From TrEMBL:
<dbReference type="InterPro" id="IPR050177">
    <property type="entry name" value="Lipid_A_modif_metabolic_enz"/>
</dbReference>
<feature type="domain" description="NAD-dependent epimerase/dehydratase">
    <location>
        <begin position="4"/>
        <end position="213"/>
    </location>
</feature>
<dbReference type="InterPro" id="IPR036291">
    <property type="entry name" value="NAD(P)-bd_dom_sf"/>
</dbReference>
<dbReference type="Pfam" id="PF01370">
    <property type="entry name" value="Epimerase"/>
</dbReference>
<protein>
    <submittedName>
        <fullName>NAD-dependent epimerase/dehydratase family protein</fullName>
    </submittedName>
</protein>
<dbReference type="InterPro" id="IPR001509">
    <property type="entry name" value="Epimerase_deHydtase"/>
</dbReference>
Length: 337
């Protein structure tokens, strides 16, 4: 099996590359050579995927059995279309890492793989789309929906679209789980979003990588929601963080209405917390039927803490700074409840 990974040096892309090499596959990676180091054992090709010349040069390294694209999250659909067009004759299949944000109903409604998608042309530029007043839909969602169309317009039934919600695990660059682990380690009274029994559905990056590789080697097509089929309660999540870090703390469960009144930013100041009904109601049964297997989230928490405690550091990313409530703000809210 010969695989091309667009990206391949950090987080999901790196886990995909390492998994492919462990299967004995021949792996080519294509990236700018700026974020992370190429994994030993790959054939690295450096270039800019928005450059027609660089894409043509990359195509000269063909053929591949499949492409897994992990590096289009910040690109407009037109750039995705340029890459799929340039590489159409170089590969049989294209596995595209997308997002649940492509759905019209996200995050307000429960979702299945058949839920309606946002509309965006395959050749749209970065100006297409908008973000609603309540934060949904998002311009990002429109852009990613257009990216999906750019893949399916070119590859048709040879296209696979993976739509993860939240991905956690060793190497995480967003900072959600590392923030909660550090907060648990600090201990004391920990501001926590009620209800404690709310189930959340993050998936482990290693499980997403394995499923992406399985799809690259298969003959399936279409979209798959990638969320944990069992999930974990928020109280179980925080208990696991406290257990792994040894932090001498205890959650204080505060009503979401109070958190909103106090100006706590959903999704970022308390990572993984959002009040919209559909956030953690994403059905992944189609992916499970196709072979998606998700390890217990307690294992993800354990392994992320071990990576982090061993001075693990992700690539620099602007989203990291968005996550976590300031200690002073947290203390003020806790004092009021």
């Amino acid at each position: 099996m010969r695989l091309l990974v667009m990206g391949g040096t950090w987080f999901l892309g790196k886990h995909i590359v390492e998994g492919a090499l462990s299967r004995g596959w021949e792996v080519t990676t294509f990236n700018r050579g700026r974020s992370g180091r190429d994994v030993d054992g790959v054939e690295p090709v450096h270039g800019d995927r928005t450059s027609r010349v660089d894409l043509e040069r990359l195509a000269g390294h063909e053929p591949w059995d499949a492409v897994i694209d992990t590096s289009s999250s910040e690109l407009p659909p037109g750039d995705v279309l340029a890459a799929t067009t340039a590489l159409r004759t170089a590969t049989r299949r294209w596995v595209h890492i997308s997002t649940v944000s492509v759905y019209e109903g996200w995050p307000h409604q429960p979702l299945t793989d058949a839920s309606p998608l946002l509309e965006c042309p395959a050749d749209a530029d970065e100006s297409y789309g908008y973000t609603g007043e309540d934060g949904s839909p998002t311009k990002y969602g429109f852009q990613k929906a257009g990216g999906e169309r750019a893949v399916t317009d070119v590859f048709g039934d040879a296209a696979v679209l993976l739509r993860p919600g939240v991905i956690l695990g060793p190497g995480e660059y967003v900072g959600r789980l590392p923030w909660w682990l550090e907060r648990a380690k600090r201990g004391g009274r920990i501001l926590a979003p009620a209800p404690a029994e709310q189930r959340i559905q993050p998936v482990d990056v290693r499980d997403v990588a394995r499923f992406a590789l399985d799809q690259a080697a298969s003959s399936t097509s279409g979209g798959y929601n990638i969320t944990h089929p069992d999930g974990m309660t928020f109280s179980g999540f925080l208990d696991a963080c406290l257990s792994e870090t040894g932090g001498p703390g205890a959650p204080v469960w505060v009503d979401p209405a109070v958190l909103v009144e106090q100006g706590v930013k959903q999704w970022t100041e308390l990572p993984l917390w959002r009040t919209h009904a559909g956030v953690w109601s994403v059905d992944s049964s189609r992916a499970v039927a196709a072979g998606l297997g998700c390890r217990p989230l307690a294992e993800t928490i354990r392994d992320t803490w071990r990576w982090w405690a061993a001075d693990g550091r992700p690539v620099d990313h602007p989203r990291w700074a968005e996550h976590g409530i300031a200690a002073e703000k947290e203390a003020k809210i806790l004092a009021s409840v």
